[in-house]
Amino acid sequence: MTTTEAAGQSLSIGEVAERTGLSVHALRFYERKGLLVGPVQRTSGGRRRYTSVDVEWLLICVKLRESGMPLADLEHFAELVRRGPGNEEERLRLLDAHRQRVDAQIQALEECRSVICWKVGVYAEHLARGEADGLWDPTI
User: Fold this and answer.
1) Concatenated DSSP letters for 59-89?
2) Going by fewer Cβ within 10 Å, which terminus of the chain is more open, N or C?
3) What's residue 137's pLDDT?
4) Shortest CA distance to 76 belongs to which of 66, 64, 26?
5) Distance, C-alpha 64 to centroid of its chain
6) 8 Å CB contact between 99 and 108
7) Which pLDDT band holds residue 15 (cuts at 50, 70, 90)?
8) Are residue 91 and residue 109 in the same domain, yes or no?
């Protein structure tokens, strides 16, 4: 049984792009940067064929990148996973450091949201009263 058979169906690059939200160009970039945990299989004609395991991994990569993980950290994480068992503590440190950065970003955004909500309330109150005086009119 081949690796592809063991992992389930074989998917084209277009199918993987559709499932992950990554462009075909981005998938090729991820492969060149070594972000996949295994080699991408090829047909006899040289076309890339992906497995469901590849798709699952890419979905994790998408979320890590969307949450601001630097490409270098993602490359390092993928390398650790490729090496196999024995480096789980290093993987945990890398992911925990990223989680802490995301938590800080969330806190900063919550503070921003709080200010925005307060200001929306101020404007709504003034509009409900039918007065706009004191709302930072540049002509005043």
Assistant:
1) HHHHHHHHTT--HHHHHHHHHHHHH-TT-HH
2) N
3) 62
4) 64
5) 4
6) no
7) very high
8) yes
77 and 91 belong to one structural domain? no
CA distance 136 to 58: 48
Regarding whether 49 and 29 lie in a shared domain, the answer is: yes
Residues 25 and 77 in one domain: yes
**Domain housing 96:** 87-140
Distance of CA 57 to the CA centre of its chain: 11
If asked whether residues 40 and 62 sit together in one domain, one would say yes
pLDDT digits (tens, 9 = 90+) for 110-138: 999 999 999 999 889 888 988 877 677 66
- Report how far residue 22's alpha carbon sits from residue 20's, in angstroms, rounded to the nearest whole number: 5
pLDDT of 48 reads: 95
> Which residues have C-beta within 8 Å of that of residue 129, sequence separation ≥ 6?
none
State the pLDDT at residue 139. 57
Which has more confidence, 96 or 125?
96
Domain end (from 38, 57, 84): 84
Helix (H) or strand (E) holding 130: none
> What is each CA distance from 127 to 130, 135, 137, in whole angstroms?
5, 10, 14
